């Protein structure tokens, strides 16, 4: 993967129901270099960022997927799987992972077709298939038992499907600005996935508008950086449209009722967190999601945060997640027995 492609992956990824747009906070020293220096140093910067978070880069080949993932913490600790949106990458979680690796075994994969996880052009990127492939991945690295799962945006949908399909192995569930099919969803993007095409950067000047939609306070970036991002996003716009077309098809098949039935089967204790100023999936969806889940806590709503809390407020995310994780590790799987402490 070229440094310039990494810049795109780290500074702007689109995902709502299938896309996630994210803008990490680099130091100004890293950003305010010449374009040539920035491109040369970015890969090293990402390696340093992962190292700071206690993460190591790994790869594994499973069937027709060459998985790339980050792993950190002791393998003797409870496992935590962090899931990004389909057009994001594992580095979106680095800031949160920094707070988790001292206490947990953290795994963050690049999902198929994203980051450095490579698949064929005709790979099925639907949520059901990605969830099934993710299950094979966690089995291959031996972390499927008592797995704690967290998912942001579309990653939340994948985590929800996983917890529904593999209830005996899911210890806890954490959903952040989670995509779904909600009755109370009232943004243009959630009412009609076709509007996701408005988030495609297809011509110069689109980038500022898109960043303003997904973050409450988008960072100021150097002009050369924006131009570089736009150039790559424009080159990928055809593939992005194909992904959205798949979502549009799925939205015609599934309904709020079918989504509710699936969600109501989940037994795992669940934490829900939302950015109050989310313009992609409005915050009212958080209470609806809570009402569907058997063991969901009162949603955590972060003020002055948009669709990207894992980048806009990573320490706040960790501050809420760590106590929840500590509490849920003491609970038995409710399918095996009543939800009672182990000691």
TrEMBL record:
Keyword terms, alphabetized: Hydrolase, Signal
Signal sequence segment: 1-29
GO MF annotations, alphabetized: monoacylglycerol lipase activity
Domain AB hydrolase-1 intervals: 78-313
CC annotations in GO: membrane
Keyword Signal: yes
GO biological process: acylglycerol catabolic process
Name of the protein in its database record: Alpha/beta hydrolase
InterPro entries assigned to the protein according to its UniProt record, in alphabetical order: AB_hydrolase_1, AB_hydrolase_fold, AB_hydrolase_sf
Organism the protein comes from: Acinetobacter terrae
PANTHER family in alphabetical order: MONOACYLGLYCEROL LIPASE (PTHR43798), MONOACYLGLYCEROL LIPASE ABHD6 (PTHR43798:SF5)
Domain of life: Bacteria
């Amino acid at each position: 993967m070229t440094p310039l492609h990494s810049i795109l992956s780290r500074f702007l990824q689109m995902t709502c129901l299938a896309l996630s747009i994210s803008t990490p906070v680099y130091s100004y020293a890293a950003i305010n270099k010449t374009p040539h220096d920035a491109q040369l140093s970015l890969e090293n910067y990402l390696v340093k960022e992962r190292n700071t978070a206690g993460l190591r880069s790994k790869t594994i080949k499973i069937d027709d997927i060459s998985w790339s993932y980050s792993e950190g913490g002791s393998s003797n600790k409870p496992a935590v799987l962090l899931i990004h949106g389909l057009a994001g990458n594992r580095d979106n979680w680095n800031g949160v992972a920094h707070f988790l690796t001292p206490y947990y075994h953290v795994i963050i994969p690049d999902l198929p077709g994203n980051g450095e996880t490579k698949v064929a052009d005709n790979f099925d990127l639907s949520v059901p298939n990605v969830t099934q492939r993710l299950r094979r991945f966690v089995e291959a690295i031996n972390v499927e038992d008592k797995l704690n799962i967290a998912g942001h945006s579309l990653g939340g949908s994948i985590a929800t499907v996983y917890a529904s399909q593999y209830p005996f192995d899911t210890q806890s569930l954490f959903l952040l600005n989670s995509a779904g099919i909600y009755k109370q969803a009232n943004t243009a993007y959630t009412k009609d996935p076709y509007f996701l095409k408005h988030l495609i950067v297809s011509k110069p000047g689109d980038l500022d508008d898109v960043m303003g939609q997904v973050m409450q306070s988008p960072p100021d970036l150097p002009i050369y950086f924006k131009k570089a991002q736009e150039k790559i996003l424009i080159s990928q716009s055809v593939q992005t449209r194909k992904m959205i077309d798949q979502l549009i098809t799925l939205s015609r098949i599934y309904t709020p009722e079918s989504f509710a039935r699936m969600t109501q089967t989940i037994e795992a204790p669940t934490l829900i967190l939302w950015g109050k100023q989310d313009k992609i999936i409005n915050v009212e969806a958080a209470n609806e999601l809570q009402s569907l889940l058997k063991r969901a806590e009162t949603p955590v709503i972060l003020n002055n945060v948009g669709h990207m809390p894992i980048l806009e407020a990573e320490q706040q995310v960790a501050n809420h997640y760590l106590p929840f994780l500590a509490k849920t590790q003491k609970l038995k799987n409710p399918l095996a027995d009543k939800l009672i402490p182990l000691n």
